[in-house]
Amino acid sequence: MSSKLWGTDPSKTAVIRQVTDAITTVSVPFLRIGLLKFGGRATITKLSSGGLVVFSPTVLTDEVASTVTSLGGQVSYIVAPDIEHHLNIGPWKAAYPTARVIGPTVLYQKRQKQGNEDVPFDFSYNSENKNSLVLPEDFTRDFELEYWDNHMSHEIALLHKPSGTLIEADLIFNLPSKEQFSKTDIDATKGFWTKVSMHLFTSLAGKSQQRFLWYGASSKGRAGFNRSAKVLDGWEFDRIIPCHGDVIETGGKATFRRLFAWHLAAAEAEARKTK
After folding, report:
1. How far is Cα 259 from Cα 167, in angstroms, rounded to an integer?
2. Which stretch of 51-60, 197-206, 266-275 has the lowest confidence by average pLDDT?
3. pTM for the complete prediction?
4. Residue 273: how many other CB atoms lie within 10 Å
5. CATH H-level superfamily of 2-274
6. Could you tell me the CA-to-CA distances from 225 to 115, 116, 150 in Å, in that order?
7. Burial of 134: CB neighbours in 10 Å, binned 0-12, 13-18, 19+
8. Which phi-psi region, left, alpha or beta, contains residue 126 (left: φ > 0; alpha: ψ -120 to 50)?
9. What is the side-by-side strand order in the sheet with 239-241?
10. Distance (Å, whole) CA 167 – CA 145
11. Are 163 and 22 in contact (CB under 8 A)?
12. Three-state DSSP class for 46?
């Protein structure tokens, strides 16, 4: 199964890049349902305390493990950001057993039903505790966290405060995934299904992704989704690191506001009604 997702040799195809002094990305080829060239990405952030936060871990190859060692070697937190981004948390937890795991409660339940490795979630987010769950100070010193319990994938998004970077999984796509396929012989822009997915999930122009967010991603709980959008709108960020597609190095806040414009307007309208 993993070879269909990430290719037969992730050691040769992963692109490891230092984005900032504190942030390193591991970008890999990833095919959704074997057709859609979404790409995948882990984001490793060094905390002010010296520990590492690994968001949406990719395959733990020797090269990635060496990168972790070069960054100090202390993985303090593993973030499984939604119900789709979790397949590698078992090997990472086994390699770094003192790391604490953050993820949605519904993901833990899904993993139990599927028979995945039993990786306990130290900080398990759900609708009831999303505003009361207290994370350790070494994490909150550098990060803000918003749990989108009304997103179809139950998203956890992070703001790395020192660099003004939004780190997210399936909240915003930025296709095509050129960096993630750059070490393969696959063209990230070609193919019928690729062009369809690029049309739906580009962040650069048009309203296709905006419509997907409104009619698809938020359809099961739009009011709560709107409130989460309002929270992120209050964050200060310029860069967006998505799991799928190229990093948005600058102009990320404007991109976010354009894609979530309908949700932000609805949140404002609701706020006016309750005054």
Report:
1. 16
2. 197-206
3. 0.94
4. 7
5. Ribonuclease Z/Hydroxyacylglutathione hydrolase-like (3.60.15.10)
6. 30, 29, 5
7. exposed
8. beta
9. 143-148, 155-160, 165-167, 239-241
10. 10
11. yes
12. strand
